[in-house]
Amino acid sequence: MPHTHLLAALARERAHVLRAVDGLSEDDLGRPVTASGWSITQLLNHLALDDEMFWISTVLGGDASAISELHDGWSSTPMTGAQAVEVYRRRIALSDDVLATVDLEAPPRWWPPAEVFGGAPMSDGYEVVLRVLTETSVHAGHLDIVREGIDGHQHLVVTGD
Question: How much of the chain exceeds pLDDT 70, in percent?
Fold first, then answer.
């Protein structure tokens, strides 16, 4: 089944993100790490809220409570790094619940108004999940670079995991 491979790839990239931040101190998670000023905590909030909650819970799942909570993950309420990791893990679990029940061949259940997201509606759930997979993969790479700058840790992809 094609969706099995897509969802497995998403799970691997989510795990990659979590490995990239594992063991970092609160100082490392909370301080600005790029010239534009974002912190790892902010990036985790972005992944949790702008990707997992927005794309999967709201767009794919049509979850009214998630729709009412929509906001810019980059500018979320300040929290600790540990809290950001927990929020990301919780949003992944909620997303997995949605992904277990939706038909990826069907169109999204909800689409944001143009003032929230000006892009054309996606045609089906596969397109939405591919968007989340791409976004998660890109940010996993960002975290690899940031982590190497913090403590020299390198994520080497030798086996494809």
Answer: 96
* Other CB atoms within 10 A of residue 85 CB: 21
Opening angle at CA 51, ends 48 and 53, nearest 5:
65
Q: Decide if 10 contacts 129 (C-beta within 8 A).
A: yes
Any bridge partners for residue 39, and if so which?
32
What pTM did the predictor assign?
0.91
Q: Which long-range contacts (CB under 8 A, 24 or more apart) does 152-155 make?
A: 155/16, 155/19, 155/20
Tokens of 40: 């790892």
Residues ≥6 apart with Cβ < 8 Å to 128: 55, 56, 59, 60, 108, 122
Residue 105's SS3 state is coil
